[in-house]
Design a protein that fits this description.
- Helices cover about 35% and strands about 25% of the residues.
- By secondary structure, it is α/β, with parallel strands linked by helices.
- It folds into two domains: about 180 residues, Rossmann fold; about 220 residues, CoaB-like (Rossmann fold).
- A hairpin with a 5-residue loop joins β6 and β7.
- α3 crosses α5 and α4 packs across α7.
Length: about 425
């Protein structure tokens, strides 16, 4: 039992949240709230322009810290140096085209750009601007320069911009920004851009097999792990196609093509079509093993009699079929990653079940999760093992699902690098 004294408690991660002067500044309030509520100590450093959109009082109330913008505030504390030196992470959201340009060229004309120069921790810039500004050669060069220095510049989303315009340049939603922030805090380093030029396919969620127009057979998969895999791959530079089964509650990751699917048969067709020519396929979806032999055309009514038994038949094994078609030369994809949700039994451990499944499926890598008792399904965190067909067994410690995703892409990138 701890005494509860401050010196007995671990210090919370220190995050500097920079806010640029764009209409997307309103999303910074939600980023700030999510970070503080999850135990982070956040200092907000807006630009003067940002305060035209959100007042300092709002940031102060949500963070519990005073807000300053200039280097001549609290000079005795040398804020323009100390904030960057002491931070565990710097997040700038939104990062406007002007702010990106100033950061790329080492400007230090306000508290935020000075903090960026003194920071020796991971730095995440989250762009938000009109499409023409994002696609301008000056902005593209500035982004490339920052990335070459180890700064993580997130991919902007496509969608509604200021006014009637729509296109690429929309700031990703706060949950995605916070997820990336948690990943960078856990990794303590920048995300590599090692998947640039690669096309990957990820499946997510749980398939459903209809009994009638109302009812279905399904499973508890929320799709969070598959979405984390897609999100991390996109921010590592990949072109990502996400085959999502019943994940309406989740926000599509920025820069990812979303392909909705419903049943196991629909997922099978999508996987076999999309996998051809991809560099890697990661099968994180929970695919129903069985489906009803017959689907009622109308809702099955409740009567006084017991219901008729539901006859089931096997669904296609999508992972095994993908491997077979690949090995037969019908689909061109060099690397396939499977997922196995397992429970142990008196005779066999979760890990041994996973090894047996890897041998049966024939894929190159397999992620094994222990499920049940609030683990893996419908939660924010995950753990497990990454098994390779070369005999490797890499434990994946408990943490955010984005951290497990990063472990998977590390292994994928290493294997693709040798091809």
């Amino acid at each position: 039992m701890t005494s509860g004294r401050p010196e007995d408690r671990a210090a919370p991660p220190r995050v500097v949240l920079g806010v640029g002067g764009g209409i997307a500044a309103f999303k910074a309030c939600e980023v700030l709230r999510r970070l503080t509520e999850s135990g982070h100590d956040v200092r907000v450093v807006p630009t003067d322009a940002a305060l035209n959109f959100i007042g300092a009082a709002t940031f102060e109330a949500l963070s519990g810290h005073p807000v300053r913008t200039g280097v001549f505030s609290d000079v005795d504390e040398v804020l323009h140096v100390r904030l960057g030196q002491e931070a565990d992470l710097v997040v700038v959201a939104p990062a406007t085209a002007d702010l990106i340009a100033r950061a790329a060229h080492g400007r230090a004309d306000d508290l935020l750009t000075s903090t960026l120069l003194t920071a020796r921790c991971p730095v995440l810039l989250v762009p938000a601007m009109h499409t023409e500004m994002w696609e301008h050669p000056a902005t593209r060069d500035n982004v490339a320069l920052l990335r070459s220095r180890g700064v993580v510049v997130a991919e902007p989303d496509r969608g509604r911009l200021t006014g009637p315009d729509t296109g690429k340049g929309r700031m990703p939603e706060p949950p995605e920004i916070v997820d990336l922030a948690r990943l960078l805090l856990a990794e303590r380093t920048a995300l590599p851009r090692d998947l640039e030029g690669r096309r990957v396919v990820v499946s997510a969620g749980g398939t459903r097999e209809p009994l009638d127009p109302v009812r279905y057979l399904g499973n508890r998969s929320s799709g969070r792990q598959g979405y984390a895999l897609a999100r991390v791959a996109a921010h590592r530079g990949a072109e990502v196609e996400l085959l999502a089964a019943h994940t309406a509650d989740l926000v599509r990751p920025a820069g990812v093509e979303l392909v909705p699917v419903g049943s196991a048969a629909e997922l099978r067709d999508a996987v076999l079509t999309r996998a051809d020519g991809a560099d890697a396929v990661v099968m994180a979806a929970a695919v129903a093993d069985f489906r009803p032999v017959d689907r009622a055309e109308h809702k099955i009514k409740k009567t006084g009699a017991d219901p008729e038994p539901v006859a089931l038949t096997r669904n296609p094994d999508v992972l095994a079929e993908l491997v077979r078609t690949r090995d037969a030369g019908e689909v061109d994809v060099p690397l396939i990653v499977g997922f196995a949700a397992e429970t142990g039994d008196p005779d066999t451990s979760v890990l041994d079940h996973g090894r047996a499944k890897l041998a049966r499926k024939g894929c190159e890598l397999l992620v094994v999760n222990a499920v049940g008792d609030g683990r893996a399904f419908e939660v924010e965190d995950n753990a497990g093992w990454l098994l390779g067909d070369d005999g490797q067994v890499a434990p994946i410690p408990f943490g955010a699902k984005s951290l497990l995703a990063a472990t998977v892409w590390d292994a994928v990138s290493a294997r693709l690098g040798h091809q």
